Amino acid sequence: MAIGVFDSGLGGLTVFKEINALMPDLPLVYYGDNAHAPYGVRDADDIYDLTCKGATRLFDAGCDLVLLACNTASAAALRRMQEGWVPENRRVLGVFVPLIEALTERQWGDNSAPRQVAVQHVALFATPATVASRAFQRELSFRAIGVDVEAQPCGGLVDALEDGDLILAEALARSHVQALLRRMPKPEAAVLGCTHYPMLADVFQDALGPDVRVFSQGEIVAKSLEDYLTRHGDMLGESTQTIFLTTGDPQSVSDQATRYLRREARFQAA
Length: 270
Fold this sequence. Notes:
By secondary structure, this protein is an alpha/beta fold.
């Protein structure tokens, strides 16, 4: 009864960590496509193909439900997968909707008409592919009106985090924040629209200032998943153990993941 957690690399561990903290008895199968990271500079067809391959591997591992803990995959591949690819009796969910529900203070399943919300000026930090897709703005428009979104493509940031170069990653994050603030000087909220970015949540908060509320997805998505599983207990798959899979070098990925999670995470070849 494991849930699959998919990411292009290490970023999905920010979601894995919160799910594990909230539901410690829930087995999780984590798949990191480290060999092909980052997804944010790939085209939509490439992202779709890689995401379908990863989801298939998680289905084969005994997961009936796969969570795309990757904003780029959620933006570029999820809708296409749900419309014609996902096998019967399987589910693939993304991370955008829970975040937007939190931003707009909506409950899950609230399909009422878009309405005015408290937050009017939102900064979005995401990969170039996510920004280009405009998926965040599309999903937001279904729920809220009058929200100004300024999106900043954060080139190079995922690469630095995947390489473990935190000095470069921090410098890039601050540079991207400054670039956005030149276009939107006073955002009320900031969305970390890539699951890698919460690794630098404190840096983003410091660069944006204390008056900006920073939304990252780990805890939000974990709570949404808990609610979903309460209503769909049949999606708990057949696998009963937590395992970590990677398309990259298992030893290198294990070392980085263990440092981030502060617990042993032994990856095996996917």
